[in-house]
Specification:
Elements lengths: L1 E4 L3 E7 L14 E7 L1 H11 L4 E8 L2 H12 L7 E4 L5 E8 L2 E7 L8 H6 L1 H5 L3 E4 L5 H13 L3 E4 L9 H6 L2 E2 L3 H9 L5 H8 L3 E3 L4 E4 L5 E4 L11 H14 L4 H15 L12 H9 L1
Parallel strand pairs: 1-4, 1-8, 2-6, 4-5, 8-9, 9-10
Antiparallel strand pairs: 2-3, 6-7, 11-12, 12-13
The structure holds adenosine-5'-diphosphate (ADP).
Length: 292
């Protein structure tokens, strides 16, 4: 059983050949909405792989909130703990695409209503989990509370430190696994008041994702677990797919190396299709890929 505590967003995308200047109105080419948010994405990745997944998060009492909650339910995720809140809008990313350029505004909205109190109310769910999976798109105090509760009940905790921000060393010391990409790992290990010994200890928890190369783990010694060769179409959501898959495999009792191998396969398959959530493979697709 996997519990994800994290963000739920709607990506609102406009495509336009001209980027409007301040005060200007232009005609766009197309418009669409895509479900996102790292919490929701990772929950979808795990659910596609057949895991029992509970998502704890908040949406606004608005159309996007309703649509996203229904959508997540249809993916097989337990959504009883996705709470509609009255005083914030559903989290959104407003994305403008123009000839390969983009500009993005993120409004976290209801994701910031996932307070430490909300996390505390769900202690019984954390207690029933095998793995608790976290990211950094809800308030940091809430991530800290979630880790405290999970460790109180001796649960495995994976923290995907994205979007990266300075983190207290107590948090890094408590979690079982950290899943930064290369860029995030540099910031994670440099921005701290860590003495060498602490740095080494935290490094052993790192599973550093490196795109097509695969991942590096540092458990006993530095070791690259090679990625799979695929034709990449869209790499959005590769990290989220990897994290969801890692949680599934670890909750099934796999060794760290085997879990990384499985998650590499899931990450690789996810980049062969368009979209973050829509590109995430099912367990049948992963099994077929691995036995091919
Ligand atoms: P992020 O999207 O967070 O930057 P990465 O790009 O490191 O994360 O991708 C996460 C994981 O997804 C990688 O460790 C790898 O397993 C898989 N992956 C990503 N891109 C590719 C690719 N082009 N080919 C094969 N696997 C990939």
């Amino acid at each position: 059983k996997i519990t994800v505590i994290g963000s739920i967003n709607m990506d609102i995308v406009t495509k336009s050949s001209i980027i409007p200047k301040v005060g200007e109105t232009v005609m766009g080419d197309s418009f669409f909405t895509i479900p996102g948010g790292k919490g929701a994405n990772q929950a979808v990745a795990a659910a596609r792989l057949g895991a029992d997944v509970t998502l704890i998060g908040c949406v606004g009492e608005d159309a996007f909130g309703k649509e996203l909650t229904e959508h997540l339910g249809k993916q097989g995720i337990m959504i009883d703990n996705v709470k509609p809140v009255t005083h914030s809008s559903t989290g959104i990313a407003s994305i403008t695409l123009s000839d390969g350029d983009n500009s993005i505004i993120v409004v976290p909205g209801a994701n910031y209503e996932v307070t430490p109190e909300v996390v505390k109310e769900h202690e019984h769910i954390i207690e029933e989990s095998d793995v608790v999976l976290l990211q950094l798109e809800i308030p940091l105090e809430s991530v800290i509370e979630a880790v405290n509760l999970a460790k109180k009940h001796h649960k495995t905790v994976i923290l995907n430190p994205a979007p990266i921000q300075p983190l207290p060393k107590e948090l890094l010391q408590q979690v079982d696994y950290l899943t930064p990409n290369e860029h995030e790992q540099q910031l994670l290990l440099s921005a701290n008041d860590l003495i060498d010994e602490e740095l080494e200890q935290i490094k052993t928890k790192c599973i550093v994702t490196q795109g097509s190369k695969g991942v590096t783990i540092y458990k006993n010694e530095e070791k690259l677990i090679s990625g799979f060769k695929v034709e990449a179409i869209d790499t959005t959501g590769a990290g989220d797919s990897f994290n969801g898959a890692l949680a599934v495999s670890l909750s099934n009792g796999a060794s760290l190396e085997d879990a990384c191998q499985f998650a590499n396969a899931v990450g690789a398959l996810s980049v062969t299709k368009l979209g973050a959530q829509s590109g995430m493979p099912t367990i049948q697709e992963v099994e077929a890929f691995l036995s091919a």
